[in-house]
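Re: that backbone. Tokens:
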């Protein structure tokens, strides 16, 4: 079946459907990772986005339940150059095509993804849509123009858990960690559990004062989709956490919310950082880490003695981490859980545990 990718400026790319035969609109973004399409599709940070994969051949190792970052596909659609329908992997339980069909998500192949990526890099991430049909219709563009975009959108409350739950085994764990679920990836929870925390996950809009009554020792603010400035409830909760001197760790959207709480501003990036090859420099040690990233907003800030910038992106000098002098805080824009991606930054989970431990001993 034919499929059409339609951008808000009227550009039309004709290809072939390999997912569910439907239509879907969203923000068109690209990811430069060479592997990890299942993790990308199931990452809640991709809500309301259609993902273009720059690696040309996708689907060759199939789908396996262990690679899920959430309970379902979160992205609005997938764009690839060439789809492989016969995966070669002993662990594969289904094809990528069947995976998309199971969750009623469209996929389009046969697209010049180099041309599309160059367009996004030059013009910014556009709104667009995938439409599965025998022929093009002007109604497709009309549907794309109805999409309100990502700016000003509070999507954390859409993808968050409905109720509190425990992750992993809390038995014998010294410290109880409250995780705010703004769209948390499963591998983040795995590594927090492995670091030694008893992990409790809370809905995004839960007041911090309510969580504090549970006797937690520290807080974690997760990754997630949408505009951080729209998450006013998260900013209010983070202010309460800071005011009460709880150890705090924020990743991606969590980092942006910390920045807003500290009085910084955030801005929508032209095309964002999405992939497993982003170089980040520690301003404390001078060490460069290759990181996995997925974000379209960034904190705008200047380093100061009271609130120093801890990491910067070497491609564009954007802020990748901020601190608060004298406060038990870790905040990074990138993904140290790196699934998929490099492992350079996984030490941050143990660093946070050590930070909680030293804070509690004081």
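Recovered sequence:
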């Amino acid at each position: 079946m034919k499929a059409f990718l339609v951008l808000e400026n009227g550009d039309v790319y004709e290809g072939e459907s390999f997912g569910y035969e439907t239509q879907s609109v969203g923000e068109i973004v690209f990811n430069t990772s060479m592997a990890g399409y299942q993790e990308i599709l199931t990452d809640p940070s991709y809500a309301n986005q259609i993902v273009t994969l720059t690696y040309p051949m996708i689907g060759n190792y199939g789908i396996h339940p262990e690679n899920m970052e959430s309970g379902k596909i979160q992205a609005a659609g997938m764009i690839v150059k060439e789809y492989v329908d016969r995966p070669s992997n002993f662990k594969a339980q289904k094809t990528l095509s069947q995976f998309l069909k199971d969750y009623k998500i469209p996929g389009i192949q046969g697209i010049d993804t180099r041309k599309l990526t160059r367009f996004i890099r030059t013009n910014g991430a556009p709104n667009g849509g995938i439409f599965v049909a025998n022929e093009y219709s002007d109604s497709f563009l009309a549907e794309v123009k109805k999409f309100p975009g990502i700016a000003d959108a509070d999507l954390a409350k859409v993808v968050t858990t409905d109720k509190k739950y425990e992750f992993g085994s809390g038995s014998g764990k010294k410290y109880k960690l409250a995780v705010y679920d703004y769209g948390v990836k499963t591998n983040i929870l795995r590594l927090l559990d492995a670091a030694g925390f008893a992990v409790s996950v809370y809905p995004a809009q839960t007041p911090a004062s309510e969580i504090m009554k549970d006797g937690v020792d520290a807080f974690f603010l997760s990754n997630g989709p949408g505009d951080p400035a729209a998450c006013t409830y998260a900013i209010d909760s983070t202010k309460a956490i800071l005011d009460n001197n709880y150890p705090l760790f924020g990743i991606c959207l969590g980092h942006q919310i910390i920045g807003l709480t500290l009085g910084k501003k955030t801005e929508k990036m032209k095309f964002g950082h999405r992939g497993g090859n982003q170089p980040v420099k520690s301003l404390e040690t001078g060490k460069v880490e290759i990181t996995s990233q997925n974000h379209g907003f960034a904190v705008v800030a200047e380093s100061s003695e009271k609130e120093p910038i801890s990491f910067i992106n070497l491609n564009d000098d954007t802020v990748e981490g901020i601190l608060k002098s004298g406060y038990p805080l870790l905040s990074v824009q990138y993904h140290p859980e790196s699934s998929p991606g490099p492992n350079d930054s996984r030490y941050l989970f143990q660093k946070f545990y050590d930070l909680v431990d030293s804070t509690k001993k004081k």
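The two ends are 65 Å apart (CA to CA). The chain is about 25% helix and 30% strand.
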